[in-house]
Amino acid sequence: MPLQRHILVHCPNNIELQNLTHVSEFHLMRFSDDPELQPTIFGLFLSMYLVTVLGNLLIILAVSCDSRLHTPMYFFLCNLSLADICFISTTVPKMIVNIQTNSKEIVYVGCLTQMSFLILFGCMDGMLLTVMAYDRFVAVCHPLHYSLIMSPRLCGFLVFLSLFVSLVDSQAHNLIALQIIYFKDVAISNFFCDPAQLLNLACFDTLINNIVMYFVGAISGLLPISGIFFSYYKIVFSILRIPSSGGRYKAFSTCGSHLSVICLFYGTAIGVYLGSAVSHSPRNIAVASLMYTVVTPMLNPFIYSLRNKDIKRAVKRLHSRIV
């Protein structure tokens, strides 16, 4: 059935159901409607996007060009950097285009596509952080068997499994969104197509869809968090059994960057959900979402490059080759 350029501002009754289809576009929220602030906001988000892409590409290039970094930990780090590039690319380019064109519309198909990729790469981030926690668990708790356990085949399988789970999660949310045909409004209270926002705009009772969506979200969220918590529970107890303080510091330092990224990623993600539950201000929810979808991917390369001596040396060697 073709999409009509018809915007529903109320839910259709039984008579209207025969003649109306779903909306053709949604309106995304702007951070400011002040025309004088638009160039500043445009420059800010463009800069953040470029820094994120270039920073993560730099890590990928540094690891790829340095044979000493061809280890499981850095293999997972490269995949995390790639997921971060894709994650931020689902939201910021559209926002930049809308600011430049003085528009806030996103077509229905584009909204569902953006939502699907946002969930896909967001879930991929969480799954890869879990895999990296398992890698640190093996490195700290079973150092003598590390190379045997973390074989190239297992590493490839773990990345594939992360992608598969993320794809299932993304398509489950997409199928739920496709069940919504009629909307009571087209204004999304965020700067991207948030699945929770789409459900809130639905005309009819979406209790079952809400239950399914939050159940799927809980599985894709709680399972990684549980895996990370269990891994670091074992890591902490293993480190505490090391007799020397220098040995304990060395063992824990291998987990510092990863632990910082975990706190940043899940801290901002949990903040979004808590903020949306406590505060009903769209502006506050959008700011919290900004931290989760934009700021976190931008800071990840800095965290790994500033706290990791191997990455620093690899970047210096890459720079010397280019120069």
TrEMBL record:
TM ranges: 41-62, 74-92, 112-134, 146-168, 211-230, 251-273, 285-306
Keywords attached to this entry: Cell membrane, G-protein coupled receptor, Membrane, Olfaction, Receptor, Sensory transduction, Transducer, Transmembrane, Transmembrane helix
Membrane topology: Multi-pass membrane protein
Domain of life: Eukaryota
GO molecular function: G protein-coupled receptor activity; olfactory receptor activity
Cellular component GO terms held in the UniProt record: plasma membrane
Protein localization: Cell membrane
Keyword flag Transmembrane: yes
Protein name per the record: Olfactory receptor
Protein species of origin: Peromyscus maniculatus bairdii
